[in-house]
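Lab notebook, bench 4. The sequencing result for the construct came back, and we need a structural model before the next group meeting so we can plan mutations. Quick request posted to the team channel:

Model the 3D structure of this chain.
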Amino acid sequence: MNNITYTIPELMTTKFYELPNPIYHRILTELTHHFGFVTAHMLDILNNAPVYQLDQYVDIYKYIHVI
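Done. Here's the predicted structure in token form:
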């Protein structure tokens, strides 16, 4: 799978749920592993979070390159 490239402004405004499905599911899997579980309420919060904020929990840069 090819990695996705974003600019800084795009990354700042892109919500987690707006990512392509393969990237979304890989990051969600890592988040689930990090937290141990993900409830529906947690998923709502994560989905509406800007992607760059998820970097504190998961290395999103394995899947997303920033230019």
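The beta strands are 4-6, 64-66.
Will bring this to the meeting.
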